[in-house]
Every structure is written in structure tokens, then in C-alpha cells.
Specification:
Length: about 350
């Protein structure tokens, strides 16, 4: 249905209203302007109370809901109904308005207003659900469709919280399919968009929006995500570069800032010249000597040279000669029968 046809159809059905009721409807839905007027603004203009304006609006919509009056809008209703069906019967309001504007070839600046009016006239076909602290405003084909979407997302949120760490897209879809075998990527995305409390990070992992692994707070959290993604030690300049390559983060990360943040955070370990790793990977902070002492404290029978080299290299980026040089420090280490122990 083209824009001109929809506008002409709207104009035609508005002729069913008396001038005062038509004025209220046009102003409430912004059919002749970009902005929609409030009940109070319309009431002041007409010199009636807000409640009276509300009554006039409800009366006007009831008049227009007559089957004969809406016959001209049937094609547009069919487009909206099919589109919602394709997305599991519910869609976030702002996304739906944008998509329907494209499908209905609406290009005017107040196209959102015209579509809202169309959906409001749909009566039982379309139901509006207001924004809440947890859920975004949406339109649905029925109360049942909305509840089904909400229940699914609540169940997925519970799974995410129990995991205590972000989950991949594939795992999320697998869990969604176990709850609803008619689920697919398209519907899953549409349902999750409704929820304010869960989101995804730049690497497609899902979790609680309050988690620093989903909504990183500052350079150190972003660096942590980079290390988890790369799964290997990185120089701080590499970390800064990788942070800046992630399009989801607008603020540029500077190398020196990254270096300073990594030094202060216990999640990261300096394992070489400017090179860091995650402490979770088994790397230990401190000098090579410190790591040698730590290893030998846990070895009751001592350790051979090769065992120590292997152990230290697993915890630090260091040359073999540096390890051997440290072992020559007789203040800390002694060697008997080819095995090293602490003094």
C-alpha cells in the first residue's frame, strides 16, 4: 500500500467524524504535524478538561472502528498483521514503526504518527503494551502473544543469571528452542529486544546488562573482554588497538591509559615487557624470582632445571637464560642431586 493511498484512506475515514472529534483525533495522533498533542494542550485549546478530551478521543476511535469505515485500511492492516506474525506476534514499538513505514512506503516525517493511528484503529488485531522499568514499549497481535514472549525472555534471563557468565548466541538459541520449538533467530531477536535487563556485548555474547562483560565500564573492562576474546597474552599497545577496532565503543583507547589500567587491576598479570595475560589463565604476578620461589614452595621434593623452566614459561613470557640466571642466586635457591629447592 503506497503512502498516497494510505493518506487518502485515512482522510476518507476521518470524514465519518464531526469537526470537533476529528480535531481531537488529528491532534492526539499528530496526523497533521510531527508532534502529538497532549490531553492538556488539546483541552486548553478547546476549553475542556483533560478527561473530556480523553472521552472524545475514545468516542472517535469507537466510531472509526466500524467495519465499513475501516474497509479502506484492510490492506495496511494485513501488512502489519503479517509482519508481526513473522516476528512471533510481538515487536518493539520504535522498531515496528520504522519497519512498517518502509513496508507501507511512508516517507513523511510524521509516518510514525500515521502508523500509530493505524494500529490504534486495528482494535483487537493489535494491542499496545506500555514501557515499564524492565520492558520496552511494544505492539503485539494479542495479550497471549505478548505474555508468551515475556515468559520466554524471563526464562532465558534466569538461565543467563544462573550461568554467571555471558553465553554465546548458539547456546542462547538452543535454550530458547528447548522452551519453544517454533523459535528461530528472527523471533528470538525480536523477543529479547523487549527486555531492558539483558543484552549482548560486541562479540555476540549475552548476559545481564549490569555485567561488566556485557556493558564494560571503562578501559579495564574493555581490555578484559579483549583478552577473553583473543585467548592469548597481548602487549598493551595491541590491547589498545583491538579496543579501538571494536565498533561498539565510541571512545578511543590510548595505549598509555591501557597500560596504566592493566597494572592496577588484579585480573591482569604483567608477564613480559609490556605484555599482559589474565590471572585466570594461571599466570602469576611478580618477578621471575618470585615465580620460582612460588613454584618451589609447592614442590616438596624440589624440581629439576627442566621442570622449573617448563613451569615458569607457563606462567611468564621469559627467556630460558633469565630463569637459569635467577636460579644461580644462592640466597634463595640451592641445588642438590640435580634438583633445586629453597634455601
Amino acid at each position: 500500500m503506497r503512502e498516497q493511498n494510505l493518506k487518502e484512506a485515512t482522510e476518507e475515514i476521518l470524514k465519518n467524524l464531526n469537526p470537533r472529534t476529528r480535531e481531537v483525533i488529528e491532534k492526539r495522533f499528530g496526523l497533521r504535524s510531527i508532534s502529538r498533542n497532549t490531553l492538556e494542550a488539546i483541552g486548553q485549546n478547546l476549553r475542556v478538561t483533560r478527561e473530556r478530551v480523553r472521552q472524545i478521543e475514545a468516542f472517535g476511535l469507537k466510531q472509526l472502528s466500524h467495519k465499513n469505515a475501516l474497509e479502506l485500511l484492510r490492506p495496511a492492516f494485513a501488512v502489519a498483521e503479517k509482519h508481526l506474525t513473522d516476528y512471533g506476534g510481538v515487536r518493539k514499538e520504535d522498531v515496528l514503526l520504522k519497519e512498517l513505514a518502509e513496508l507501507l512506503c511512508l516517507k513523511e516525517k510524521n509516518s510514525d504518527n500515521l502508523i500509530n493511528f493505524l494500529l490504534a484503529l486495528g482494535g483487537e488485531k493489535f494491542q499496545y503494551f506500555k514501557e515499564t522499568p524492565k520492558w520496552r514499549a511494544s505492539w503485539a497481535l494479542s495479550n497471549a502473544s505478548y505474555k508468551e514472549a515475556i515468559n520466554l525472555v524471563n526464562a532465558l534471563e534466569k538461565i543467563i543469571i544462573e550461568k554467571k557468565f555471558p553465553i554465546s548466541r548458539d547456546v542462547l538459541l538452543k535454550n530458547a528452542l528447548s522452551l519453544n520449538n517454533g523459535m528461530n533467530d528472527k523471533i528470538l531477536d525480536s523477543h529479547i529486544e523487549l527486555c531492558r535487563s539483558i543484552s549482548q556485548n560486541p562479540f555476540g555474547e549475552w548476559g545481564a546488562i549490569s555485567s561488566p562483560e556485557i556493558s564494560p565500564r571503562g578501559v579495564k573492562d574493555k581490555a578484559y573482554l579483549i583478552f577473553k576474546k583473543e585467548k592469548k597474552p597481548l602487549h598493551f599497545t595491541q590491547v589498545a588497538s583491538l579496543i579501538n577496532q571494536v565498533g561498539f565503543w565510541d571512545r578511543k583507547a590510548h595505549s598509555q591509559t591501557v597500560h596504566n589500567e592493566l597494572i592496577k587491576d588484579s585480573r591482569f598479570v604483567l608477564i613480559g615487557r609490556g605484555t599482559y595475560a589474565l590471572a585466570d589463565w594461571g599466570y602469576e604476578p611478580g618477578t621471575v624470582r618470585d615465580v620460582l620461589v612460588s613454584a618451589l614452595k609447592n614442590a616438596k621434593m624440589g624440581m629439576t632445571k627442566n621442570e622449573l623452566i617448563e613451569t615458569i614459561k607457563a606462567k611468564r613470557l621469559v627467556k630460558e637464560n633469565t630463569i637459569l640466571l635467577n636460579l644461580q642466586n644462592k640466597k634463595f635457591f640451592k641445588k642438590e642431586n640435580e634438583r633445586f629447592t629453597l634455601q
